[in-house]
User: Fold this.
Amino acid sequence: MSADITRLLGAAREGDDQALDAALRLLYDALHRLAHEQLRQDRNERTLSATALVNEAYLRVFQGAALPSWESRGHLLGITARAMRQVLIDAARRRKAAKRPQAKDRLELSEVAAALVGEVEPDALEHALDRLEAIDPRQARIVEMRFFVGLTAEQIGAALAISPSTVQREWRLARAWLQRELQTD
Assistant:
């Protein structure tokens, strides 16, 4: 499927509107499956469904009159992962802004939680990820793709054109860095 999307995106860059429609349809379906799986694994009560998450991220990425520029399928996936991150953090902020915040108003970072600090305030996570991006943008992309989209090391490696072992190594470094940053916030 990724080869199909890449091929279609190439044709879309050359002006083929039908290829663009087909690529976006395939991308939407893939993101919906990933979001559904990611939200299914999350034990916290969420106010977003997989469809709402993908739709909101899609609107953020494709909201302007002009299409976002992308270099490859991996680049477009990275843009979408960032949008999904923003949607999830914004939803957690809205829940937290309620009159009586509950424990469920904290983000529990499913896979990251055990290695980090358990529950993390959405703003603290957002600031830590922004600081990581300033230091190492690739590690920030890996965290976004792994946590917010739920991609495996192999999928991330394919999207970023790096080996799965490099993804694992960078993931461990980013996770350790985030743990330290979130414990000091």
Observations:
- The chain has a mean pLDDT of 78.
- Residues 17-41 form the longest helix (25 residues).
- Residues 2-184 form one domain.
